[in-house]
Design brief:
The protein has about 325 residues and is α/β, with parallel strands linked by helices. The chain is built from 11 helices and 13 strands. It is globular and about 55 Å long. The relative contact order is 0.15.
Length: about 325
């Protein structure tokens, strides 16, 4: 049976690479475009090992439109999943122009190529950073957005607005905006995971480097938030549950008209110390940490409600944070 071809931008990155696995398991043929600016070609080899496939990939920047158009013409994609983009809140606050230049221009180039090649089905990798921090919790898809606290979140919000207007301009577009909360964990094989280049900005990769003794201690940014232990509350979700969600959107495109937004999180908020202590319990040893000042752009709390995703996509969380942490420890032991 002929497999539907799916273009996956940033498919060697953390979330993109994990999404490749259920795509192949569900009968799709994912083809990756990635410039490997924050990922590694070795991820492709590991995906081949996990899926027992030979995954096609291209190494170039999405702003290289002539190359991108050639890929579109060669493969005749049914849909696109757009993961590519810079994602560090801290880095975006230090260099906003870098984030706006990269995240916006790569996205516009991609959308133009899609239109030129008559590919109108798209899943966009967005973020809970688009929500207004002072809105009541839990956040749903109808919660107010736009008062972003960092340039990364602003770039996601602007791209969302572009997509909403794009869908209004032509009824052929079917767009699913996937707003992620905080993905953690990795595939159970331990072959792939969240392994950013340079100093990690997210909690779990930071803890991982401390466990591996690549860093002396964990920096916890802020202990004066209005939470039970003073550290920030986030909604952590196993990355494989998030990967499965993209397959659910692909299978539901026939019911999407225009642009639909879906939240993906566990629906529960846990503090930075909660996650750190969970690591300690499973490892049966202490993780050294030091409190630092709050980072620019960080907020007290965020967590979601998954009602729409469950009702329309028949998607639900299957894996716990404890499972995510066990998978991370397995990754450390494998590597």
């Amino acid at each position: 049976m002929k497999r539907n071809k799916i273009l996956v931008t940033g498919g060697a990155g953390y979330i993109g690479s994990h999404c490749i696995i259920p795509l192949i398991d569900s009968g799709f043929d994912p083809i990756i475009v990635d410039n490997f600016s924050n990922s590694s070609k070795s991820v492709i080899q590991k995906l081949n090992q996990i899926t027992k496939s030979k995954i096609k990939y291209y190494n170039f920047d999405l702003r290289e439109k002539s190359k991108l158009n050639q890929v579109f013409k060669k493969h005749l994609f049914q849909s696109v999943i757009h993961f590519a983009g810079f994602k560090s809140v801290k880095e975006s606050s230090q260099d906003p122009l870098l984030y706006f230049n990269n995240n916006l221009s790569t996205s516009i180039s991609l959308f133009e190529c899609m239109k030129e090649n008559k590919v109108f089905k798209l899943i966009f990798s967005s973020s809970a950073c688009v929500y207004n921090a002072n809105e009541p919790l839990p956040w749903s898809e109808t919660t107010k957005v736009g008062k972003t606290t960092n340039p990364y979140g602003t770039s996601k919000y602007i791209i969302e607005r572009i997509l909403i207007d794009l869908a209004k301009s032509d009824p052929k577009w079917r767009i699913g905006i996937a707003r992620y909360f905080n993905p953690i964990g990795n595939h159970s094989s331990g072959l792939i995971g969240d392994n950013p280049k340079g100093m990690p900005n997210n909690l779990v990769p930071y803890i991982t480097k401390v466990i591996k003794r690549e860093l002396p201690y964990l920096n916890i940014y802020g202990n004066d938030y209005k939470t039970k232990d003073g550290t920030g509350v986030r909604d952590y979700i196993h990355v494989m549950d998030l990967a499965d969600a993209h397959v659910n959107i692909l299978k539901n495109f026939r019911n999407i008209k225009g642009c639909e937004i879906y939240n993906f999180g566990s629906g529960n908020g846990e503090t930075v110390l909660d996650i750190t202590k969970c690591f300690e319990t499973i490892l049966q040893k202490k993780i050294p940490f030091k409190y630092q000042k709050r980072r620019a752009g960080d907020i007290d709390k965020s967590y979601t409600i998954n009602t729409k995703s469950f009702k329309e996509l028949k998607w639900k969380v299957k894996r716990t944070n404890e499972q995510a942490i066990k998978d991370i420890i397995n990754l450390i032991n494998v590597n």
